[in-house]
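Quick one: structure tokens for this chain, please?
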Amino acid sequence: MSAYHELTCTISPGGLLFTCVDDDCGRRLVIDRDRGELVVIDRGDPEALHRGFAGGVRMPAPRVAPA
């Protein structure tokens, strides 16, 4: 299992954009401000564990359903 990758957050009126700081990863996801839905834009490194937060928003470890 890979080490943790940190996510940085950009706050906008439409939601929160989280971007992985690791140049080799490229994971990006957004949390919709109105509905609270999390959408993965770019999956990045599927083996990496990611963590990050913005103010009161914390993202726990993901639960991935089998494909």
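The chain is about 0% helix and 50% strand.
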